[in-house]
C-alpha cells in the first residue's frame, strides 16, 4: 500500500546522497540493459520468428515506447505525492519479470505483448529517480549527478550488446534475456530495503509542506515556459535519431557488412559505450560550469555540437570498410549527447518542486512517443526500399533519418536558449513563494 511522503522527514547526509545515486545508477543500468539488449538479438529473433522489418520496427519503437511514455505520466504523478523509492523498486521487479517473459515468446504477438509490459514497468524508473536526485543534490552539482545517472544509457547499450551478442552466439537469444532478468529481480529487493526517501525540496533549502498542484493546471504551467516546450521537443528529436541508429545498427552491420552477432556486439559495445559516456560527463561539466555564468551557454554548445554531428553520419552509413564505419560512429554519438546535462538539469530547473517527477516524465513522454517513431519509420522505409535496394535499403533509411533528425534537434536547443534565463527566474520565484508558505 502506498504511503504519503511525510513532511517532517529527517535530514539526510551527503553519504545518503551518494548511496542513493549508486542505487539509482544500478536501477537505470538495468533499465537500459533490458531495453537495448533486444537490438543485438534482433537478427536471431527475425530468423527464429520469421519477422518483417516493419514488425521489428514495432517491437523496438511503438510496441515498447507508447505505453512506456503514457504510463510514465500517472506514475510520475504518484511519485510527486508518494514514496518514490518504493515506486522505483516495484517498477524494476515488474520489467525484469516481463523481460523473462519475452524469452518464452513463441510468435510475434506474444513477444509484442511482453515488450509492451516491459515498457510499462520501465515507465516507473526514470521520473521518480530524477526527482530523488534533485532532492539529494543542490543546483550547483545537480547536472553532474543527473548525468552520472544517465550515463547508464550508453553503459546499458554497452553491456547489453556484449552480453547479448556473446550469449546469443553461444546459447541463443532466449537465454540472453533470462541472463539479465534474474539479477534485476534480486536488485529490486535491495533497492526496496536500502533506498531512503529524502525530504522534498531539501536540496533547495525549502521545507516544502504544500501538496502537488492539480495535474492539468501544473502541466499547463510547465508548457507555458517556452524553454520546457523546446527542451521536450529537442529531447524527443534526439531520441528519434538515437533510437533509430542504435536499435537498427546491429541489423545494419549484419546486412551491409556481413558480420556475426558476436562481432557486432563487441564492436558496438565500445563504439557506443565509451564515446557516449565521455560525452555525457563532458556535457554535465559544461552545464554546471557554463550554466552558472549564463544559462544560455550550455544550450548554445549543445545546439552547435548536434549540428556538427549531422554530416558525420554520412561517413558512418556510406563507407565500405566496416572498421571505419564503426569508428566513425564514435564522433556523432559523443557530440550528440553533450546536450544531456543541459537537458536534464534544465527540465528539472524550470519545474516547481512538486512537479519535478511530472516534468521528468513529460520529457520521457517525448523521448518515447517522438523517439519511438524513429525505429518504426526506419523499418517501414527499409521494407519499401528493399525491392529496389535489397539489403542496402536499411543503410539509406538510417542515413536519411539520422541527418534529418540532427538538424531538427539542433533547432530546438537553439530556441530553448532564447528563453532559458527568464524561465529559470520564474521557477526560482516559485521556490521563494514555497519558502514563505
Describe this structure in words.
The chain has one domain: MFS general substrate transporter like domains (Growth Hormone, Chain: A, Up-down Bundle). The chain has 20 helices and no strands. It is mainly α. The chain is globular and about 60 Å long. Mean pLDDT is 81; it is low at 1-10. The longest helix has 36 residues, at 14-49. Helix 1 (14-49) runs parallel beside helix 7 and helix 2 packs antiparallel against helix 18 (373-389).
Write the layout of secondary structure elements.
Elements: H1 14-49, H2 53-60, H3 62-79, H4 84-102, H5 108-122, H6 126-136, H7 139-150, H8 152-170, H9 173-194, H10 215-224, H11 226-257, H12 261-293, H13 296-318, H14 322-328, H15 330-336, H16 340-349, H17 356-369, H18 373-389, H19 393-417, H20 420-436
What number is the mean pLDDT? 81
Radius of gyration: 21 Å
| Low-pLDDT windows of residues | 1-10
How large is the count of helical segments? 20
**What's the level 1 CATH class?**
Mainly Alpha
Shape: globular
CATH H-level homologous superfamily name: MFS general substrate transporter like domains
DSSP strand tally: 0
Amino acid at each position: 500500500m502506498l504511503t504519503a511522503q511525510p513532511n517532517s522527514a529527517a535530514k539526510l547526509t551527503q553519504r545518503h546522497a551518494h548511496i542513493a545515486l549508486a542505487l539509482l545508477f544500478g536501477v537505470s543500468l538495468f533499465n537500459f540493459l533490458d531495453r537495448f539488449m533486444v537490438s543485438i538479438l534482433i537478427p536471431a529473433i527475425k530468423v527464429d520468428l520469421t519477422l518483417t522489418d516493419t514488425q521489428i520496427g514495432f517491437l523496438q519503437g511503438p510496441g515498447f515506447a507508447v505505453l512506456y511514455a503514457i504510463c510514465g505520466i500517472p506514475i510520475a504523478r504518484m511519485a510527486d505525492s508518494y514514496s518514490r523509492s518504493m515506486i522505483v523498486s516495484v517498477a524494476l521487479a515488474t520489467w525484469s519479470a516481463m523481460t523473462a517473459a519475452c524469452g518464452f515468446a513463441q510468435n510475434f504477438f506474444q513477444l509484442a505483448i511482453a515488450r509492451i509490459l516491459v515498457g510499462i514497468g520501465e515507465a516507473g524508473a526514470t521520473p521518480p529517480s530524477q526527482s530523488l536526485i534533485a532532492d539529494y543534490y543542490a543546483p550547483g552539482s545537480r547536472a553532474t549527478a543527473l548525468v552520472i545517472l544517465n550515463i547508464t544509457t550508453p553503459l546499458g547499450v554497452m553491456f547489453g550488446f556484449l552480453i547479448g551478442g556473446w550469449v546469443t552466439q553461444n546459447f541463443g537469444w532466449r537465454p540472453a534475456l533470462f541472463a539479465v532478468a534474474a539479477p534485476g529481480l534480486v536488485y529490486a529487493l535491495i533497492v526496496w530495503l536500502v533506498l531512503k526517501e529524502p525530504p522534498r525540496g531539501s536540496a533547495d533549502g525549502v521545507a516544502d509542506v504544500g501538496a502537488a498542484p492539480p495535474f492539468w493546471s501544473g502541466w499547463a504551467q510547465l508548457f507555458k515556459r517556452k524553454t520546457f516546450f523546446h527542451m521536450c521537443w529537442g529531447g524527443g528529436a534526439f531520441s528519434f535519431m538515437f533510437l533509430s541508429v542504435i536499435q537498427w545498427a546491429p541489423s545494419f552491420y549484419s546486412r551491409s557488412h556481413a558480420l556475426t552477432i558476436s562481432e557486432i556486439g563487441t564492436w558496438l559495445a565500445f563504439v557506443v559505450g565509451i564515446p557516449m559516456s565521455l560525452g555525457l560527463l563532458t556535457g554535465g561539466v559544461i552545464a554546471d560550469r557554463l550554466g552558472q555564468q549564463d544559462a544560455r551557454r550550455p544550450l548554445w554548445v549543445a545546439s552547435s555540437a548536434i549540428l556538427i554531428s549531422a554530416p558525420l553520419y554520412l561517413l558512418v552509413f556510406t563507407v565500405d570498410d566496416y572498421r571505419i564505419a564503426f569508428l566513425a560512429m564514435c564522433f556523432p554519438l559523443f557530440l550528440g549527447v553533450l546536450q544531456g546535462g543541459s537537458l536534464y538539469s534544465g527540465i528539472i530547473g524550470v519545474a516547481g518542486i512538486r512537479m519535478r517527477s511530472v516534468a521528468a516524465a513529460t520529457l520521457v513522454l517525448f523521448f518515447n512517443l517522438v523517439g519511438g517513431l524513429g525505429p518504426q519509420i526506419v523499418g517501414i522505409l527499409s521494407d519499401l526500399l528493399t525491392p529496389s535496394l535489397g539489403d542496402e535499403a536499411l543503410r539509406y533509411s538510417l542515413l536519411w533519418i539520422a541527418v534529418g533528425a540532427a538538424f531538427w534537434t539542433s533547432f530546438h536547443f537553439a530556441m530553448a536558449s532564447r528563453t532559458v534565463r527568464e524561465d529559470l527566474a520564474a521557477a526560482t520565484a516559485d521556490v521563494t513563494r514555497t519558502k514563505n508558505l
